[in-house]
Automatic annotation (TrEMBL):
Taxon lineage: Bacteria, Pseudomonadati, Pseudomonadota, Alphaproteobacteria, Hyphomicrobiales
Main location: membrane
Entry keywords, A to Z: Cell membrane, Membrane, Transmembrane, Transmembrane helix, Transport
Membrane topology per record: Multi-pass membrane protein
Source domain of life: Bacteria
Protein name: Sugar ABC transporter permease
Keyword Cell membrane belongs to the record: yes
Intracellular or extracellular location(s): Cell membrane
Amino acid sequence: MLSPYLALLLFFGVAPVLYALGLSFMDTIDWVFWGFTNYEFVLQDFRLVESITNVFQYVAIWLTMMLIGIGALSLMLDALSDRSAAILRTSFFLPGAITSSAIVILWLFLLDPAVSPYGSLFEALGWENRQQVVSHMGYPMVFSLMAYLAYSGGWIVVIGGALKGISTEVIEASRVDGANQFQIATRIKLPMVWRSLALMAILSFANGIQMFVEPQLMALAGRQYSRPDWSVNQLAFQYAFNLGDFGASAAMSTMLLAAAIFISLCVVFGTRFYKMD
């Protein structure tokens, strides 16, 4: 039963990573072995530190929004009737069915006070145009809101499934003991689904540090919004398709993957994620 997944993982996951790893040790212009020269080159790029800072600011804001927002919404939905909860989960899931590129284009309108349904709020804050809205909110916050609305619906469904797996006998016993809805949610349900929330955090972190689409497509709003080196993945893109240096691009991509794997493993083993209760 695992063989189809393993085949796809091999051809579209493991093989490209091994190819990029080998490429990172090559001078892809003269096709000679360079050792760690590509890694030294990209680490000396003056834009790298700022790009890393931008990405981690975005990830910190986004993960906080995901853990608090999705955790709270999932617990509240689980307290409703099955029919009402199903309707609301579907409404939360629908925005996530839109691709990231479409989400960015939609947000370019939402951030413009002239056409946004939140225009009156922006005007009350003294933000008269899109540039003022973006500059006051900051790119990390803007991208976090985009990502939250794009991915939260799917995770609400996943966490909702985990909550439905809790034994009804446990919930009934807590009610008999006098627990109210808030106590049941925070003291019974939340501790029993923390692994699902931890999994969401791990996968979201791995996805977040590889962000590319959102800052890349902001240029559609105008040249003043263009940030071609805002994220680390954009730097790798610049090396490959602007400079033609695929070895340097592969080196940066490999380091980014290694960082994601290392931090994810620290979270997994630090939280004893796979320990059976």
